[in-house]
What we know:
The chain has helices at residues 78-83, 87-92, 334-337, and strands at 22-24, 29-33, 41-46, 49-54, 57-62, 69-73, 97-104, 107-112, 115-120, 123-128, 141-142, 146-150, 161-167, 175-181, 188-194, 201-206, 213-217, 225-229, 240-241, 245-249, 258-263, 269-274, 279-285, 288-293, 305-312, 322-328, 341-343, 346-348, 354-360, 368-374. By secondary structure, the chain is mainly beta. The protein has one domain (2-138, 238-374). The strands form 7 sheets. It has a 5-stranded antiparallel β-sheet with strand order 1-26-25-24-23, with no helix packed on it. Strand 29 and strand 30 (368-374) form a beta hairpin.
Amino acid sequence: MLWQLGLTSAKNVDHFMLGSKYSILDDDWSLSELPALRNSAVEWLDGEAALLSRGCCLYHGNLHSQLTQLIGSVPIPPWKKILTFNPLWRRLFRLMYFNVLPITPRRFFVTYDKTVGLISDGQFKPISLNGRFRVLRQGLGCDGDFLYFGEYFNNPTRDPVHIYKFSLQDTTQAMHRVYTFPAGAIRHIHRIQTDPYTGDLWCMTGDLPKECQILKTTDAFASLDIIGGGDETWRCISPLFTQKYIYYATDSEFRQNAIYRINRGSGRREFIKAIDGPVYYSKKLGPNLFFAVTAEGCPSQALPCASIWHVHEDNEDGTGAKKILSFKKDCLSPKLFLPGTITFPSGALPEESAVYINTFALSHADFAVFKLSWTEPDR
């Protein structure tokens, strides 16, 4: 595809997108940018209070003003710090926070590029600086006492892949291996995620069809049960949990992407809707489920657009999945300068009628923050 190489032409883009930075596809929804937060990302929300990142720095702030108080920063070489002032260099060198988790009001677990550590009382304390892997965004599972995360790296030789745990109370700041996929089993781990209804930890792996699995542990990785796997319909990054179902959207490279759900009672998987590209990130807000399609440039994606799909969990028959928002990818290569990406802040949102999003590598919406609001979404 031309757009995979950064050679987008107008004929490759939906006509309704031309001349605008985004398109709202349903009258029940509206989108507004938070201009004070340009060139920043909202990493965590606790009502109106926010943890915001810019470059290698982490700040306290809120959704209506600029950054208010520096929390700390991840130390990087001076030449890289200079590059963080330019969004394009940030994207090229992945000079970004991928995970921010407040442990106490003055202690934060962070992953920045391929560095894992703590910002405690304003100082950064490394846990891992080996540069082998990064933890994908919102890729942390928690059982109350420990954080769990897996290795995400290129891994062309299919070396063993590890899952680690980190104690929230331990002052030694050490991470410990709790599970290892043997050589040749998988390429990498997409995410560890906690089921809020049961406390079980779920693990998603990729990337080739035989490496795509959704797994679950009930004993802190002493064992792993395979929920499903073996083809790209099980290639997933960010499932969402409801009382009756586990919803997920695929991250398929070569086949049509879709939204599925797994019935907790029967274990049966149900197809919901074919969608327009791979999904990296998702968010649940009350009964509303949001799935963000990434403009990745993979063979399964026809158009250079990122989008958001909405599902209401009260739809018992699984119908009603709807695309509500679409952005154009910018003209730069998704492989070098990041795919066009929509992410959701972690934490608790300030209201139930709006969800906040960060956007990267999208036309006129690079390192931007938006508020997506609705009146009464159709079910």
